[in-house]
Request: fold
Amino acid sequence: MKMKLLTTAILSSAMAFGMAGAAQADEFPTKPLTLVVGFGAGGSTDIQARVLANVLEEELGQPVNVVNQPGAGGGVALARLANNTDEGYTFVFGTSMTITFGPLSTETTYQLDDFRYVAGVTLGQSAMVTGEDREFGDTWEGLIEYARENPGTSYATQTALDRMIIEYIARQEGLELRIVPTAGGAGMAPLILSGDVDFGYSGGTHSGYADSGEMPVLLSLAEDRLVAFPDAPTVQEAGYDLDTSDFRVVVVPKNTPDAHVERLAEALEAATQDERFIEITEERILMPVHFIGEEEATEMLHAQSESYRQLLKAMGGVPDDE
Amino acid sequence: MIGFDAILASFAAALHYESIVIILGGVLLGYVVGVIPGLNRAVAIAIAIPLTFYMSPYAAIAFLIGLSKGTAAGSAVSAILLNTPGEPSSAATCLDGYPMARDGKPRKALKVGLLASVIGDLLATLLLIVVVIPFASVALKFGPYELAAILIFALVFIAAMAGGSFLKGLAAGGMGIILGTVGLDPETGAARLTFGYAELMEGVPILPLVIGTLALAEMFVQLDEYRRNKGASVIKLSHDKADDLSYQEFKGTLPTILKSTGVGAFVGALPGLGPSVGAFMAYGLAKRSAKDPDSFGKGNPNGIAAAEASDNAVIPASYIPLFGLGIPGSVSAALLVGAFMIHGIQVGPLMLRDHPEMLFTLFSGMIVASLLMLAVGWYGLRIFARVTSVPPHIVIAVVIFLCLAGIQVQGYGTFGLITVFVFAIFGYFLKKFDYSFVTFLVAFIVTPMLEMNLRQSVILSGGEIGILLERPIALAFVILTVVMVLHLGWSSYRRRMQARFKARAGR
Reply:
């Protein structure tokens, strides 16, 4: 009797494993997926990720759970993903900056080559912003002029990258700035709105104030002028030789099977055509939805990484990691 | 502007039977989550957001707010009967709730807790409705100077009420501050005390720390006691008439409830401080202003009333910065922002302009939720209390399981489990050697905010302390803190001298 039970147990478990194996090869995904956001709940990345998860859930036929793993400008989530081995069931939705700049500026446990970049889905709209009714008005030239005359003009930084960009600009323009650390867009907004800080970096928070005009944009850090703030010049137009463009990308570990990456990419492409995703992205957080395939995304990331390496070299701070 | 008709219509919408069923569902679920230690508000809301996707925007938000409010009231049940707060914010409720229940007055303790919860919640909701609009313009002027000053004030206040040995209190607070500074330096990005673990880059995760030091360590302590004293009494609700709350007794706690609601509403309105700070501040105030401060911690109903009224008042009040400014002041508020967005509503000052009917329907829904909370708590008292009639060897095992499951649900993985056990052992010794774990926890939670605001202030001012003269609110809090330290130092010195004098006289 005991023997028979044991045999049945072994047989049935073997069958279960065999079935699971067969199913996995055919139709990924067969179990719930986890979408990791490298930023806190309530931020623009998080808001977008939650809608994306809902759309992907329908496309993939499995629940997609959103998990926030904030820290190090999205770096914590990537560091954890690098060691993940569940073949695409866990993926990070994040910004290209974390991948390209993170490993250069800080000692990270991940590198650009540790991941596959399934697809880019949205172009970033980061910017230098200020508040209403400032002495220098709401133009970039006005600010630069004011900052030259007033050493100690304050700037709210959120990431190591924007800190380096502003230091580069400050050196080129001969400015002496007070650079104040803040935690994410929710930490920056009150400082800028209250007037405690003169200007600052914003990843996407400014889009929420596009209608009210409480947070004017001084300078676009995207490749083109911002959709919602067409009057602000781009970094290049303002005369700085910098590539600061950014896009939002879905990342999986290097060892993810091709079939899984393809299935995810398919679902993501469909998501970029989904009304709900387009609505939340283009009308709420005001970023253009744009699908970028794996190959192109990987190329763009490599080019960006190289450009940041040059910038770091110019600023005298390239880490010796080779 | 909003007409009277619109407000009336919003109430009609909130009183529709469908709305009531949804809010009731939220409050009930919240109550259960609140009663169960280890399952916290943030987890519950995060899990519930996908559920609400199929509801109308109003129903979804009302459900989540009902849930959030329910947890605050429900958490008192386990705080009183189990000495384990269902939510970290009810830790202060344990201090008097558990001793009172142990003394054979569990029903009285629960009813005091419930009435304080409902009154705190209801009054704070009314306050929210009244002040949210003008608040936006005032709070906009709060900068890092004010926040740093307010945080220092709160920290000193809480450290002061912990009592016991002053040196032990300092040591516990110091441990909290050291653990609070773990992670990336906000300015330079350098990793501090992470020992190479990427998991620690974002700081010591709060949930494993709180569940470890509060819930799991308490289970260890209880196991310890259970082993030594097998026939230990389980706190049950009797039908004893003497254990019912009389109107006179309720009236006695009313001044404390009203005062504590004020404290809770104030703390809640300030982004980031949270219900734990509010509950402990109110508890400290009630203890200090009482005629018999020594009876606190030994089952004084005023202690329960203070902690619960304030804990529950924080929740609606924490929506003041959310609705007034669009800035989430707490984890649950941040999750609400996400829920609003999914339903296509930009939460914040714009809401008043674009969706005024929605805002007022929500406010009416919140009042309905308060009243439902009273009904659920009052009639469900015995059902929710039943968890304690289960023998401790089952309760302890289930609670340990739920603690660990809560960590897993949050996605902390193996690292979270190790962290929770490390802090359980740490918390066990804190309790055994009578260190103030309250001071420890509050210092830990407040440190990152304090550090950020303090560093911002120092950089912005260029290191000049004279800036305080231009910031009257910050200056007021700094002076208040200094006066409080001097006063507390003097009074505790005097008390010690008196005790020494008495000891000598007695010899």
Notes: Confidence is low (pLDDT under 50) at residues 13-25 of chain A. Chain A has two domains: 33-124+246-314, 127-220. The radius of gyration of chain A is 22 Å. Chain A touches chain B through 48 residues (CB under 8 Å).
